Amino acid sequence: MRTETVTGKYSTDIDSKKYWLIRAAIMSVLPTEGQGLTYKALQAAIEPRVPAKMFPGSAAAKTSMTWYTMTVKLDLQARGLIKHLPKTSPLRYLRIDSSLAPPVASN
C-alpha cells in the first residue's frame, strides 16, 4: 500500500493489512465534531482495537505501531479524511464527515 503525505513530497509503502486495520481503528475513534483527540489520545484509543498479533513483541512492537499510526494518520490527512484543529497545542484531530470527504482510490 502506498501512502500519501500532506506535502506530497514523498510517499511510503506499508503493509496493506496493517494500513487498513489502523485506518479503520482511527476512523472509528475520531469524532467528527468537538475538541477532537490529541495524537497521544488517538494512539491510546486505537490500541485496544488492533490485534496484538499484528505487532508482536515488546518495545519494538510499540515503536512499530506508533510508526504505522503516524504514517496512516498523515495519509488520511493528505486524502482529506481527517484534519487537525487550528491553533491547538498539542494538535487535535477530527474525522471529516464522510459525506464531505473526497472519494478514496485504493492502491
Short synopsis of the structure:
The chain has helices at 16-29, 39-46, 59-78, and strands at residues 37-38, 82-84, 92-95. It has 107 residues and is mainly α. The longest helix is centred in the middle third of the chain and has 20 residues, at 59-78.
Explain what the structure shows.
It is a single chain. The protein is mainly α and about 110 residues long. It contains 3 helices and 3 strands, in the order αβααββ. It has a single domain, classed as Arc Repressor Mutant, subunit A (Orthogonal Bundle), CATH 1.10.10. Helix 1 packs across helix 2. The protein is globular and about 35 Å long. The N and C termini lie close together (about 5 Å).
- Here the CATH topology equals Arc Repressor Mutant, subunit A
Shape summary: globular
Largest sheet: 3 strands, antiparallel
Q: How many DSSP E strands?
A: 3
Strand order of the largest sheet: 1-3-2
Number of helices: 3
Total discrete domains? 1
What share of residues are in beta strands? 5-15%
CATH architecture designation: Orthogonal Bundle
How confident overall, as mean pLDDT?
85
> What fraction, in percent, of the residue positions are helical?
25-40%
The Cα radius of gyration reads 13 Å
Salient structural properties:
three-stranded antiparallel beta sheet, 107 residues, 39% helix, mainly alpha, Arc Repressor Mutant, subunit A
Produce the secondary structure layout.
Elements: H1 16-29, E1 37-38, H2 39-46, H3 59-78, E2 82-84, E3 92-95
Antiparallel strand pairs: 1-3, 2-3
Helix pairs in contact: 1-2, 1-3
